[in-house]
Description:
The protein is α/β, with parallel strands linked by helices. Helices cover about 40% and strands about 25% of the residues.
Amino acid sequence: MKILIIEDELELLEVIGNYLSKENYICELADNFRKAEAKLFSYQYDVILLDVGLPDGNGLDLLSTIKKYQLAGGVIIISARNSTVDKITGLDLGADDYMTKPFELSELNSRIRAVIRRRQLNGNNILVFNEISINTDSKTVFAAQKEITLTKKEYDLFLFFLINKNRVLTKEVLADHLWEDNIDLAVSFDFIYTHMNNIRKKIRSAGGNDYIKTIYGMGYKFTDS
């Protein structure tokens, strides 16, 4: 899962980024309005942590842009202002949650998971597709009731496919979702083939079926049809 953290307090920005990275999120950082806006129009994110008080703009204006152009999944506002008016305005503009500083990082992580469950997992923490199941809380994958050991990247890739089942995903989309923003400097996407082959081998070894279909000239699709 990829998260954009927009926060002008550099120390807090780094603390949140380090914490969430250890929780296996891919984190991108922006410490002002201009940087955040550029990232939003260049990359896709599952969740955005949005500070309201930015030095060069209002975070609520960014929220309006996010919703207008459908640039992101979930948005959690993080603000030093414990204002009912700000909360109502943010939620009315489409934010999924609102947290007032200071807050516990463990609570922030819990709120992020809740937003992901509501927006992408239909409120569940367990995804099931035929004999395949993924527990997004424990980050475990089972095929034919046998647990499969995946690396972090393999898990993220497989979860992304299951969330987007029956949709064609290009190599560019996969790379953008699973790697940091400097992925656009890569000269090839051969690393995606490597992860795909590893996942397929592990699923088949556990007795599961290979649902990842290659759509030549386009990308891949997770489907049983």
